[in-house]
Amino acid sequence: MKKLGSLFLFLFVIIESQAQTAADRKAILAILDRQTADWNAGNTTAFMNGYWQSDSLTFIGKVGVTYGYEATLSNYKRRYPDRASMGTLKFTILKLEFQAPTVAYVIGKFHLTRPKVGDAEGYFTLLWRKMNGKWVIISDHSS
């Protein structure tokens, strides 16, 4: 009888963890969808809502490492000052994995369609952490 109880407990834990992962996967993908919509509306401030609002946020790009939410937002605004430079964003998610219940890792590709200034594209790696029940990007490496 104890073995049967242990088996049910084990199955419950497995099913619960998979359900949590599915809900978390859906939440992360929804944030990325919202970021795409915000970018395509020309709103870099709203786009940044997917990022951790902390001085410890890291963004790694072609020019090196940027530390902090405000500095990252500032770089976005300077690099993409108008709708023509922002273009239309499309994300392609190549991999989304969970390293722990509160840590996720996303690899993807971005493409900016920009008829006036030329298209741009590259790849990104995002490290996510679930804090206070909300998923946020704590590190972004885009190139």
Plain-language structure description:
12% of the residues are buried. The longest helix is centred in the N-terminal third of the chain and has 39 residues. The chain has a six-stranded mixed β-sheet with strand order 2-1-6-5-4-3, with helices on one face. About 9% of the residues have low confidence. It is globular. With 143 residues, the protein is α+β, with helices and mostly antiparallel strands. It has four helices and six strands; from the N terminus they run H-H-E-E-H-H-E-E-E-E. The protein is 41% helix and 37% strand. The protein has one domain: Nuclear Transport Factor 2, Chain: A (Roll).
Element layout with pairings:
Blueprint lengths: L1 H39 L3 H4 L10 E4 L2 E4 L1 H11 L3 H4 L1 E13 L2 E11 L6 E12 L2 E9 L1
The CATH topology is given as Nuclear Transport Factor 2, Chain: A
The global form is: globular
What is the rounded Rg?
Answer: 18 Å
Unreliable stretches (pLDDT < 50, length at least 5) are 7-19
Structural class: alpha+beta
What count of structural domains? 1
Q: Name the helix and strand elements from N-terminus to C-terminus, one letter apiece.
A: HHEEHHEEEE
Query: Judging by the overall fold, what is the CATH architecture?
Result: Roll
- What is the highest CATH level, the class? Alpha Beta
Mean pLDDT: 90
Q: How many angstroms separate the termini?
A: 57 Å
Q: Largest sheet at a glance?
A: 6 strands, mixed
Count of β-strands: 6
The neighbouring-strand order within the major sheet is: 2-1-6-5-4-3
